[in-house]
Amino acid sequence: MFNVNANGANIPALGFGTFRMPDDDVARVLPEALKLGFRHVDTAQIYKNEAAVGEVLATSGIAREEIFLTTKVWVDRVGHDAFIASVDESLQKLKTDYVDLLLLHWPQSEMPLADRMGALNELVKVGKVKHIGVSNFSVALLDEAVKLSDAPIATNQVEYHPYLDQTKVLEAVRRHGSSLTAYYLMADGKVPKDEVLKDIGAKHGKTAAQVVLRWAIQQPEVIALSKTATISRLPENYDVFDFELSAEEMQAVHALAKPDGRIVNPGQLAPQWDN
Asked: Which residues lie below 8 Å from residue 39, measured CB to CB, with a gap of 6+?
């Protein structure tokens, strides 16, 4: 496992994501992921599984400081008191005094960005949050968030996979000393079936999914979130540190990007995208 250092946050480059994982799946799969070696766990208020994640972490036998834990504040936490109270509730569910990283889940909210960034900074000052970041922010909004914040932005968590060119966002996070955390890396099931990716994998004795996870973490300042509800698939997701893609192979994966490659685009939440 290797880490990405982003504005002082030392983030394991491979994380275990819990999006769309009901409590039963979290209770069944996350303990096995931790046994395998995953030390970066990603959840969110809107996933409705923070309590299940907290229970697994509390009973894992792994010291809290060894886990890098991320959660995200949902857009309807409007007003300073409601925002702070929602984070206190998250901490209670997660059975911890602090989270390593707290993100604004989407840019669109009735609470102004300046107020939301102010609340994040306050949580850092009182020790409830170690690092802060954003999710699904465009370059312009990331620039604005950086200006509004005393604490540095550790990451912008965005959709990223071979079919979506995120060059502009990558340039922006690097300019700010930040990182890009990639979700939806399997592109809703397209990746495992892709012939180009399968061919690259065959040369390394790896699957197409492993090629894409490796492609992500091999890029500077990129963190990959993997996710599975199938325990037998966990080793495949984790076993990406014993091979390296050549420059030509990296380029071949990048070349799969399409102008209409974006999958996640909820109109009421999304910004004006960069590409």
From this structure: 1, 12, 62, 66, 67, 68
